[in-house]
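Hmm, how's this folded?
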Amino acid sequence: MKEAWVRLEEWSKELVTTALEGGADALIVPVGWQQRVKALGRITTVSPDGDLKPGTDVAFETLAAPEDEARIAQRLTQGPVVLAAAEPVGANSGPHRSWPVIPLENLVARGGRLLVPVASCEEIDLAFGILETGVAGVVIAARNPAELKELLGHVKGVRKNQSLQVATIETIRAAGMGDRVCLDTCTLMTAGEGMLVGNTSGFLFLVQGEVLSNPYVAPRPFRVNAGPVHAYVVVPGGRTRYLSELQAGDPILIVNANGATHDATVGRSKIERRPLLLIEASCEGSKGSLFLQNAETIRLTGPDGEARSVVDLQAGDRVLVQVGKPGRHFGMKVTETIVEQ
């Protein structure tokens, strides 16, 4: 598990509590804060009078020149090293990076417990993706509890699982031609993974990635043949978007048959005119539908996670869906009187 340290320079009970509740591994705080922090909960403090003392138990270093790299590498053999941010805490007005990637790759390759300052989810992903292994941890200097909660959740991999139910196929029939969207991601999916897509936001089908072999075409485990341009698809943050809106660089949510999720990035969106099937299903009194391309490589997901090609689907077959209350405003769930059919 990657480490998340939180740096605080002004006292805030709310920020300390958020750090504790978010699973922070340590707090970097000024001298004199030890008792106030410990009164709120058990957590390692990094301070001249804390549990870990700068210069003794943990080194703080600046990586700004080639000669710094050799010194930091030596320090890493003795204990944890925290790279100092190039800007003062709170000075960030947007995503920034105060460390160079190539020297950091060299340090990660040497091993050791290296932590770097971050100010956004993008920086966290970059730091943890260096040489695939990534740094040991990050140091967060958040300005408010909401920002701190988001960044800690990103470090700790906190993702809200999607609740899936079993639906029964009622009808499947040819539905003419339509513009369908293939979403190619920057991630290789595994068997049972895909995206939640539907004609309505209240009834979404788990459409699997093209992971399985087929006599006619090679697997494309980065791809979900997701449906027509008007369909909804779930993206990170509990939102939905129209398939037609997505383009390279947009975030997308990958979901498996157990409801576990992880974020991915759209690498390419392909809209092509293809023959469609209309699939209608019911689940505990709710009904929903989805158009999918009429081809054997497009698969829904059975209750046990097995792939079910749309060309083999029959009335009575069972598939995994997500059923909820409809109602979206620019992709965000809202409470309103609405009928989708």
Remarks:
- The chain is about 15% helix and 35% strand.
- The helical segments are 13-21, 34-40, 66-76, 101-110, 121-129, 145-155.
- The two ends are 44 Å apart (CA to CA).
- The CA atoms of residues 48 and 62 lie 19 Å apart.
